[in-house]
């Protein structure tokens, strides 16, 4: 997919120099009559600071207020949260749980596992921890992939800032051009008014025909219409620029008109597009973002391949509980003698019981009571340690399919990176070709203007002396104005192309 910057430069190349700066239909996609995305409800754009705007100030305000950049910043923050979560996957997991239940009617005691027919209350307490010892290096590769995605997101923000800066610079120069065209057309109106006044005097003196006056008045009306058209262009470009800056209204908005040199004041433009491209490859954030996503897709392959390996984890848990049905025995302090049999004595005939004597066992007495809560929790304490090994054997070829899909993803990322480089090279080549063509066109238009100025002065003298009709005089006048307009358009196109190439070489946007 072509970037807005590439679409803009391609569109300019297709429409030509004059259409670039004067036609609304050839504006870049980001700077069309469609206004930028408006702030959400409840958000009030920053008020326009007082004083005229320089180009740098306009760029700074646009970068501060642009909502697309804010949205991308939130996206990067979300990616950062994903990165932190993947790092936290290296830590063990630990969870604790507790429950309390009441059992009615026939039920199984949760601790004695005996059937009983009584209402009981039971408490269960447990804590468990698990540590991933090995999972095919998936966690490590996931962390590295998320780091690359986070860095690519930062580069995306920088690219958006560059696109906004270029759009603001384009609109700023278009506004400067429109203001200069207004001044040129106003000068033409003033010249036409003077011409009408002179023609009226010559008509009264009988030096010229009435048709000459009518032609001069028609030319004056055309020039006044051109002034209105140019003023509308100024209002449009001013609105466009304030929308790029996300300002509430163009009312009171003004710009500083910089002192711009003529293209022929500079030496012949001989930039090296290949050298500019090599410099831009190392500077442009879209190239860095594309390369980072290629590396990220490679890590995705490693994550998918990690599912081929066994998984080993270590776990530990502790458990205890309480049941109201559990009973215990408690010494009462008393004891009793329990008969255990007769006492025997040896006689010649064998052992004989001794009459009147019975053997007994002294046995303490116990009291059966429900066992207490703390005692049960202590006595029912259980611990467990475990190692868990999972070996993948056959899972419907899911791992293999995921690996194949991730490899295809790498190839797609590589193609997108190559496409990004191609678009950058073509944009630089187009900007260079347009700059050279604009400089040459300016020089030719300047020579044409000088020649037509001489022809216009000669036509004016002949017209004032009645030797030239009004139609031919207006043709000479309009030819001169057309040459002047072409010269102004070529001047500003050359300036913009030069600034685009300077931008690609890392020199920033300044006038």
UniProtKB/TrEMBL annotation:
Entry keyword set: Cell outer membrane, Coiled coil, Membrane, Signal, Transmembrane, Transmembrane beta strand, Transport
PANTHER family per the UniProt record, alphabetical: OUTER MEMBRANE PROTEIN TOLC
Xref: Pfam families: OEP (PF02321)
InterPro entries per UniProt: OMP_efflux (IPR003423), TAT_signal (IPR006311), TolC-like (IPR051906)
Family statement drawn from the similarity comment of this UniProt entry: Belongs to the outer membrane factor (OMF) (TC 1.B.17) family.
Signal peptide: 1-31
Taxonomic placement: Bacteria, Pseudomonadati, Bacteroidota, Cytophagia, Cytophagales
Coiled coil, from the record: 410-448
Subcellular location: Cell outer membrane
Protein name in the entry: TolC family protein
Keyword Membrane recorded: yes
Major location category of this protein: membrane
Keyword Signal: yes
